[in-house]
Design brief:
Number of domains: 1
Oligomer: single chain
Radius of gyration: 12 Å
Number of strands: 8
CATH superfamily: uncharacterized conserved protein from methanopyrus kandleri domain like
CATH topology: uncharacterized conserved protein from methanopyrus kandleri fold like
Distance between the termini: 31 Å
Structural class: alpha+beta
Strand order of the largest sheet: 5-1-2-6-8-7
CATH class: Alpha Beta
Number of helices: 3
Order of helices and strands: EEEEHEHEHEE
């Protein structure tokens, strides 16, 4: 499974599992669209993703693979992961 990432304004990193791109998920009143415009710019492997995750302070992640990498690298707490329509998502904000 591939991973897509996009950098916004040189400050925000958005990453998603490829299989989620173009889909919309909801949970109650919450809805999230995994749009190509926000998430799809360049494809990365797990090694490159780790470097990117460590290099940004504001990160938006969705998908089992990308969130799993963040957990494995101790960048997010597994207990704090939210799910929308069964898809794990996390936001990292370092100050």
């Amino acid at each position: 499974m591939s991973i897509f990432c996009k950098v916004h304004d040189e400050k925000i990193l958005a990453c998603a599992d490829e299989s989620l791109i173009g889909k919309t998920f909801s949970k109650g009143e919450l809805e999230i669209k995994i749009s190509e415009i926000f998430y799809k710019d360049f494809k990365v492997d797990e090694k490159k993703l780790v470097k990117l995750l460590k290099g940004f302070d504001n990160i938006n992640l969705i998908g089992k693979k990308v969130v799993g990498v963040a957990i494995k690298e101790n960048l997010v707490n597994k207990e704090k992961i939210k799910k929308i329509d069964g898809k794990p998502m996390a936001i990292i904000c370092r100050v």
